[in-house]
Amino acid sequence: MLDRRAFLATAGAILITDTKSSLAQTTPSKALRVVVIANRYHEADGLMAAICNQMAHSPNLSAPYNVDWPRWPRVLSNPPAPPKDSGMPRCLIDVFRSPSDKTPTATMEIWCIDDLANTNGVSSAKISAMDQITNFTKPPSTPDGVIAFGTAGYPGLPSNNGCATIGGTIFIHDASNGAAGGWSWPGNMDMLIPSKIPASFFSSVAADQEALVAINLEMISPQNHPASVLQLIIAADAVGISSVNIPAGAQYCDVDTNSIGQALSHGAKNIASVETTHGVIRSKWPDAPFVFVTAIPNRVCHFPDEASGIYAQEFASSHNAGVALKHVIPYFVSAIA
């Protein structure tokens, strides 16, 4: 393992470019509040698998506690699984700046929008569902940091399937072209929306070659068209595109291609993910430092043939993004502290 680690480092294998009340009170009063929000069940399951695995535990993180997982959609069990209290995170994890610290700098909450409500993919319903995250603390509080987690397509022909991407800037495009009843973030549509995360976050991660190699070594290759090298793709100028208000029956390839064109025409230089929800999460707490941590199971326009409904593709990719999050969260916390 040491030889392989040294080889990867040399080869540059990493690319750098009340019940509610009582549960909430377990969070140290002085610790920062960081919320990680996945969109879909399967995305959150891959994340939980990565951060709850004792074999690859990060010394900068506590063991997960107040764990409420697995969460089962009622339609998937017979008889139906008993309902969960949806207004709870899947777990809490304390984050330490260094393994020797005794007091956590932050507590990370793992949430999933699918756990909170059946939104049917409607952006406005996702916004309403996330009210439960604000209301989790007593009194309700805005998070000190927000991380959007999910799966997305990666533009271009070369495959990055199985890789994870991290960036801060969001571009939201209305795929319905302003149809009545659609969701919008006034003053922020079709423009690059930078994060309030300090640039030191990206530079600190980039400088930690040991952590980057560790991410590589813990990633799992997906089944279809995997990247030649599984790696974390992170850059301060990385842009995540969110296509919202997608009309019923629309072809995602057409929607995503149009959104990419719009982003490029508005100055995007480094598009790192194309999906539906990161921008919606970004809008919920507009003043909080924000990054997206995105799993890449497929290339843009190849979701049907590379990822759709394929466990070995979707799980591996979400797991790999969870691995990346586990290693970079101390840097995120340091940047916002």
The CATH homologous superfamily name equals: Nucleoside phosphorylase domain
In the CATH hierarchy, what is the architecture at level 2?
3-Layer(aba) Sandwich
Q: What Rg, in angstroms, do the CA atoms define?
A: 19 Å
At CATH level 3, the topology is Rossmann fold
Span from first to last CA?
34 Å
* CATH classification, class level: Alpha Beta
Walk me through this protein's architecture:
The chain is α/β, with parallel strands linked by helices. The protein has a single domain (7-17, 30-336), classed as Nucleoside phosphorylase domain (Rossmann fold, 3-Layer(aba) Sandwich). The protein contains 12 helices and 11 strands. The protein has helices at residues 2-11, 19-24, 41-51, 113-116, 123-129, 131-134, 200-207, 209-218, 252-265, 278-284, 303-306, 311-336; strands at residues 32-38, 91-95, 106-112, 145-154, 164-167, 169-174, 192-193, 232-234, 238-244, 270-275, 290-299. The strands form 2 sheets. It has a 7-stranded mixed β-sheet with strand order 2-3-1-4-11-5-8, with helices on both faces. It has a 4-stranded mixed β-sheet with strand order 7-6-9-10, sandwiched between helices. Strand 9, helix 9 and strand 10 form a beta-alpha-beta unit. Helix 8 (209-218) packs antiparallel against helix 12 (311-336). The model is unreliable at 1-28 (pLDDT under 50).
